[in-house]
Amino acid sequence: MIMKSGKVLLLLLCLNVLCYAVIGAPQTCPATNVGKSGDSDEWEGEFFPGISKIKYEGPSSKNPLSFKWYNAEEEIIGKKMKDWFRFSVAFWHTFRGTGGDPFGAPTKHWPWEDGTNSLSMAKRRMRANFEFINKLGVDFWCFHDRDIAPDGKTLEESNANLDEVVALAQELQSQNKKSVLWGTAQLFMHPRYMHGAATSSELEVYAYAAAQVKKAMEVTHYLGGENYVFWGGREGYQSLLNTDMERELNHLARFFEAAVAHKKKIGFNGTLLIEPKPQEPTKHQYDWDAATTANFLRKYGLEGEFKLNIECNHATLSGHSCHHELETARINGLLGNIDANTGDPQVGWDTDQFLVDIQEATMIMLSVIRNDGIAPGGFNFDAKLRRESTDVEDLFIAHIVGMDTMARGLRTAAKLIEDGSLAELVRKRYQSFDTEIGAQIEAGKADFDLLEKKAKEWGEPKVASAKQELAEMIFQSAI
Ligand code: XUL
Ligand code: CO
Q1: Could you tell me which CATH number the domain at 71-419 has?
Q2: For the chain, which residues make up each domain, given as ranges?
Q3: 144 is catalytic
Q4: How much is the pTM?
């Protein structure tokens, strides 16, 4: 590994000039060519030397760089583990996460970073991404247009930057047999999007956002992406006093219609996904939760064109559990993808942590199994290292524990399904409807006259126990 001199100076320069660096979240330092000396071929050898391909070693292994529960090729209720999950690395967290937060500077100084946002740095980072996903043993990655390539001074320049990085990504994908789970456009970082993108009060911003999505869809298609995501971070409001909510929602629907038309025009067969979130950065985001988004899709006749990308931390921010959001999506035929992460109950904002709770993972997998998997969606790790985790190997450890937790969830959910007593408890709970009158009700054939007649005939109803604690006992015993 060779780092050219002057990189520390460039890093300081970037930190001084740039705004975003200290605010945290994915970086978009303006494009700069100062780092030209850092051409990607300047990086010699591996990005992660000393770390070899992560293997399954079983639950008794003490090796932090091994899987204890995730065994890619092992079959669990009819599918290989890797096919249940279709794990994906989120480029923005793993390769653009700096550890910066609203109170403090970046803490992560990965050896391959030269402190610039140059095109050559973007390419070097892309090489690091493929070595990482290869060694981790996942098949997919996800990206925002602006976190893989620097913003240019014009749309044309930004598109050209993107094309250059995407060409390299395409080459690395075919060498490594990897694929894009989903791509998306970053429509929240740049100041032009301060009032929103598709819901901006400014027509020119609406058009700019459309152009950006058009390009992001095209490169996702070019990379063989299986899905395309819309997360409307700034599609919402800060105050209803200055907002025409009805007009903004109509604009959002028109924007989605245009995206559907463009998808068809370019022959992109991937699924379009909307990712609900209740707030942050806006006070109120329009795609609040799965039910709100399903209602929006129905109102505008878009329900056949979109599915949902459920993010667990967003679910808890909206006052639901991840399981609730998954079930809401599933029973509406909208379960498309999972952004696998979690929050912290004591913190209460979008901390994007790796999910390490086996009970939560089990409930997630119960939904996924009921849905017979979520392909062409998958599990994207929209999760980042804590600010205080600063070793390169922590990137691996974080993903390994995230994958192992999901694998334990799958194994436990499979046990519960094979055992059958939980399903039997639920079946019994509703058995009064497995009768002639029950069937008439469910078929919409029982009018109030019939039901009144029956109520009089039956007298005071006999009501059975819900058996919640028994259900919890069965659930616990499987873990
Ligand atoms: C933000 C979030 C995004 C989307 C993609 O909370 O989850 O990273 O997943 O834009
Ligand atoms: Co997300």
Answers
A1: 3.20.20.150
A2: 71-419, 422-478
A3: yes
A4: 0.92
